[in-house]
Automatic annotation (TrEMBL), chain A:
Protein name: Putative spermidine/putrescine transport system permease protein
Alphabetical UniProt keywords: Cell inner membrane, Cell membrane, Membrane, Transmembrane, Transmembrane helix, Transport
GO biological process, one term: transmembrane transport
Superkingdom of origin: Bacteria
Transmembrane segments: 21-43, 75-99, 111-133, 139-159, 200-224, 244-263
UniProtKB/TrEMBL annotation, chain B:
GO-annotated molecular function: ABC-type ferric iron transporter activity; ABC-type quaternary ammonium compound transporting activity; ATP binding; ATP hydrolysis activity
Source taxon at top rank: Bacteria
SUPFAM superfamilies: MOP-like, P-loop containing nucleoside triphosphate hydrolases
Keywords: ATP-binding, Cell membrane, Ion transport, Iron, Iron transport, Membrane, Nucleotide-binding, Transport
Origin species: Arthrobacter subterraneus
E.C. number(s) listed in UniProt: 7.6.2.9
Alphabetical list of Gene3D superfamilies matching this protein: P-loop containing nucleotide triphosphate hydrolases (3.40.50.300)
Name of this protein: ABC-type quaternary amine transporter
Length: 270, 358
């Protein structure tokens, strides 16, 4: 949850102009790399010294509608959602469970849950691949399984942060004000943890949506997602237009989701 | 609408430790009883049991004489205000106060219009559309109080609700409690570790110590007629003068003092409030009239703001056959010109004493 009492931080040396300036720079830093990408996606021809493409075409964008690209996009969406659901639920459960532990134990369990972040993904994937192949688990569930473990640190972290400022007494006070257990869940617990849940699910979705290595190695080529299609397009030469279009297709859906998350809930404004 | 609340031999075990043992206490309808005790004495546990958030290991809670054990918290009609305001951060101030009515099935429009009345009662009508994070600590606690009252509870439980507010704000809150009592006449149990707060607000004080009620009575009784040394200390009494009781009198360094009837002969402690003692200046060592008054030497003069606390080493009167020496605390108004080493007489206003078992 957001801080219970909003704390107004003044930017260091926060005179009128520095803050918007810094913000603008940050914005540019994130957006600037997108500009060539957008240009490439609609360029028919773009030679080295030129600032802008010499000719434009929509072939690259049109290629996104090819059946194999659409299938791959669908597969990525399904993979992202399939990772988001268990990783969010498990993350919430883990965070609630860790909170019940005495302090020392909580820290230990937290370290174990965060460990996948420290292990190079390649090592993690190779290790689990051996196990999953041995157990003859099919490709898709195997990928979901490994990616859920990868996503878990993010979701646990989101919920840990949210629960740190979450007080069980909110639920108790609601009960003494006449709220049944169901009303407590619907009117207090879920609204109070809604933002954290959305953020956790978003991060976990991204893990599935943008994964390359796990899908390639554990999926064994059977699972063709958008990043794999993008990878093969990028490794071929003279394919910049398609590569750029595919990259945009990778970026836009998460950006839309993010924008959705940033919109304040209707309750805030009533 | 206001109900009486009775604890009938309530005990609560947490594992092996008994946090409440055999607590019996009655809170009459429309009265305000303060539960006074140190932190860890079991006050919050007792309130949680009353509200239904916790259950007693044995014993029962009665509301208007009816056993409430089987009634879950949400149906008990007992509202609680905790130390933290616990305003729901996703709801506006008015929707926080409208929450209980919404839970009772009232329409949103009706619930809000009721909520506004309760916000007016706590003088925050103008803050209805704010979010809780935009209020100060004192305002949040007022809203929390309004929200509890909006539940139109049969009994209102306050668990140290003012203890994180600064002293100027607490005085405003005390005034607000008085206003609420005058307008709505709720039954209130106030938990506090602050004896001043208990004395200012309560009709009666129940002293809780290590899970047992030591004494329950009107505010002056607790101060001047404590049942035990522990009660005297919890209410801030500083003087427990050892001596001997015989034939309705107590003899000590403070002399021979008449005490309450029914005291058995034998060793006993004379309890005198530091506020009930006076000092007599013996300017040139000689005494003018009060040769009965015990005398002593000032050892410490400590400022307590508008009052000073003077400690006096009092010796037995010469010829009394005793060589006892006691340090006696005396609280005086103003700024008396006293210094350590001054010789003073100590006099007991009223001349009536109160003793407890040694
Ligand atoms: N849920 C619990 N589990 C174990 N011990 C508890 C629990 N709640 C309270 N206690 C213990 O009971 C004692 C009384 O607590 P509490 O009622 O909160 O005291 P107070 O409100 O007077 O400070 C404390 O020693 C506390 O540690
Ligand atoms: Mg407490």
């Amino acid at each position: 949850m957001q801080a219970y009492q909003p704390v107004r931080l003044r930017a260091a040396g926060g005179t009128g102009i520095t803050r918007p300036l810094l913000g603008g720079l940050l914005f540019l830093w994130i957006l600037l790399p997108l500009v060539p990408l957008i240009l490439w996606s609609v360029a028919a021809e773009w030679r080295a010294p030129d600032v802008l493409p010499g000719a434009f075409s929509t072939d690259g964008l049109a290629a996104l509608l090819r059946p194999e690209v659409l299938t791959a996009t669908g597969a990525s969406l399904v993979l992202g959602l399939s990772v988001a659901l268990p990783a969010t639920v498990l993350g919430a459960l883990a965070a609630f469970a860790i909170r019940r532990l005495p302090n020392g134990w909580a820290r230990g369990v937290e370290m174990i849950l965060l460990a996948p972040l420290a292990i190079p993904p390649f090592a993690l994937v190779m290790g689990s691949n051996v196990l999953l192949l041995g157990a003859r688990v099919p490709a898709f569930p195997s990928v979901v399984l490994v990616l859920t473990v990868t996503a878990l640190p993010y979701t646990v972290f989101m919920f840990r942060a949210a629960l740190a400022s979450y007080d069980d007494q909110f639920e108790e006070v609601a009960r003494t004000l006449g709220a049944s257990s169901r009303a407590v869940l619907a009117r207090v617990r879920i609204p109070l943890l809604a933002r954290a849940t959305a953020r956790a699910a978003f991060l976990a979705f991204l893990v599935g949506w943008s994964d390359y290595i796990t899908t390639l190695l554990v999926g064994g080529g059977q699972l063709l997602t958008l990043p794999l299609v993008l990878g093969s397009a990028a490794s071929a030469t003279g394919n910049e237009q398609l590569t750029a279009a595919l990259s945009l297709a990778m970026i836009v859906p998460p950006l839309l989701l993010l924008a959705l998350l940033a919109v304040p809930g209707p309750r805030r404004r009533r | 609408m206001s109900s009486s609340l009775t604890f009938d031999r309530v005990s609560r075990m947490f594992g092996q430790s008994e946090v409440l043992s055999d607590v019996s206490l009655t809170v009459p309808a429309r009265s305000l009883v303060a539960l006074l005790g140190a932190s860890g004495s079991g006050k919050s546990t007792l309130l949680r049991i009353a509200s239904g958030l916790d259950a007693p290991s044995s014993g029962s809670v009665l509301v208007d004489g009816q056993d409430a054990s089987a009634v879950p918290a949400e149906n008990r009609g007992i509202a609680v205000v905790f130390q933290k305001p616990l305003l729901f951060p996703h709801l506006t101030v008015v929707d926080n106060v409208a929450f209980p009515a919404r839970m009772a099935g009232v329409t949103r429009r009706e619930a809000r219009s009721q909520a506004l009345e309760f916000l007016d009662l706590v003088q925050l009508g103008g803050f209805a559309r704010r979010m809780p994070g935009q209020l100060s600590g004192g305002q949040e606690q007022r809203v929390s109080l309004a929200r509890a009252l909006a539940a139109q509870p049969r009994i209102l439980l306050l668990d140290e609700p003012f203890s994180s507010l600064d002293s100027r704000l607490t005085d405003d809150m005390y005034e607000l409690v008085g206003k609420i009592r005058a307008e709505l006449e709720p039954t209130i149990v106030l938990v506090t570790h602050d004896r001043r707060e208990a004395s200012v607000l309560a009709d009666t004080i129940a002293v809780l110590d290590e899970g047992t009620i030591l004494q329950h009575g009107p505010v002056p009784e607790l101060h001047y007629q404590p049942a035990t040394r522990a009660v005297n200390r919890i209410l801030g009494g500083l003087n427990e003068v050892p001596g001997h009781a015989a034939g309705g009198f107590h003899t000590s360094v403070l002399g021979r003092v008449r005490v309450q009837p029914g005291v058995p002969d034998g060793p006993a402690l004379l309890v005198v409030r530091q506020e009930a003692l006076r000092l007599i200046r013996n300017d040139d060592g000689g005494t003018s009239s009060g040769d009965e008054a015990p005398t002593g030497v000032v050892t410490e003069v400590k400022s307590m703001g508008a009052h000073v606390l003077v400690r006096v080493r009092v010796e037995s009167a010469p010829g009394s056959g005793s060589t006892a020496v006691e340090s006696i605390a005396v609280e005086l108004a103003g700024a008396p010109a006293l210094r350590a080493g001054d010789r003073v007489g100590v006099s007991l206003a009223g001349g009536q004493g109160w003793v407890v078992r040694a």
